[in-house]
Amino acid sequence: MTDSSYVFDLLIVGAGPAGFACAYQLRNQDLKIAIIDQATFPRDKICGDALSADVVNQLYRMEESLGEKFEKFAEKIDSHGVRFVAPNHTSLAINYQNPNQGNAAGYISKRLDFDHFLFQEIENQSNVEIFQGEKVLDILSSSDGIELNTATAKFSGSIIVGADGAHSIVNRKLGNIKVEKDHYCAGIRQYYEGVSGFHEDQHIELHFYKELLPGYFWIFPLPNGQANVGLGMLSSEVSKRKIDLKKALTDLIQSKPHLRNRFKNSIPLEKPQGFGLPIGSKKRPISGDRFLLLGDAASLIDPFTGEGIGNALRSGRIAAEYIIKAFENQNFTSDALKQYDKMIYHKMWNELRVSRQLQKLLKYPRLFNFVVKQANNNSSVRTLLTSMLDNVDLKKELVKLGFYLKLLFGDIR
Q1: In terms of CATH architecture, what is 4-79+99-179+280-357?
Q2: Coiled coil where (predicted)?
Q3: CA-to-CA distance for 156 and 409, rounded, in angstroms?
Q4: Deepest of 15, 237, 247, 375, by most Cβ within 10 A of its Cβ?
Q5: Are 116 and 21 a contacting pair, CB within 8 Å?
Q6: CATH homologous superfamily of 181-278
């Protein structure tokens, strides 16, 4: 039996980046917004903790002062590039181009800190009330509105937003996105301190070992001499090959000589933590009568990199536009809200599709070895790959046979 009843215009489940962006974009609207989260902030979120150029871009697009405030945020480090380690253990370091107004193209910040930074930006927003420590137990949708129940309260609204991550109850109750192992990744994260050998420009590192393909092992530097270490693989491969990810993480660190040397004076700060990644490798319905799904709840994670924060922020920003239209027209039907789906995939599908194709190419380790070798021997190839990190139209070249023929015959200048 619930103790309290609340009536709002909009219910947002989840106070992470997607829920934040949606609420923040509605800060000047005459809408009463409830944000319901089962956690109490600050709270951890198992993740790689890397913040791409698009994350910074989305903050600036929401409001320039928000981007500037993030630039001054202390609990982060600049990251100026990425180090790829090929299956044959040769490495390639590439610096990012910087398309943003900020100091660096990318950053690394624990989600404990970054999400709390965002949380504090909406905590005192005049049209928002945040309910922490409230686990959603049930959601009911009718022609009259949405009803949401927790253990202690009942919430009513005209529309609900699912920004509650990979195991979204909004999707489970109202949506139709099912877990498909070929479109889902399993990951393991473990924090360390004392890992050595990082690039002077604080590159994130992606190690593509043959035994993990089409997944990868990562090492990301963090503030205060710490590191985020982990690995991710397609769930279908984990299941088919019966891989124990926690054991695989430990075995890699102990068995690879170059890793063993870098970890010899390190100290693990936690036990390995598992998490799931619903990747954006197929189009799905992400709205319906009186609901929208955002971020991880909408399976908008990049299939190649596993990055999802930028797309979470973008989806929240876009969702706000269609929520405003829904209230203006008093139309919360599936037909009206499916325009949100169309806009999301108009903005994101091109890159998600290319990333899925790149993920499939990881099944061919010799191809990866070849590209790294050519890039290390040819500055023009390195420059092209640098541009590809930020430009999806150039990135498309990586999935074309012609690109590899040009590499083979030295025809990239």
Answers
A1: 3-Layer(bba) Sandwich (3.50)
A2: none
A3: 64
A4: 15
A5: no
A6: D-Amino Acid Oxidase, subunit A, domain 2 (3.30.9.10)
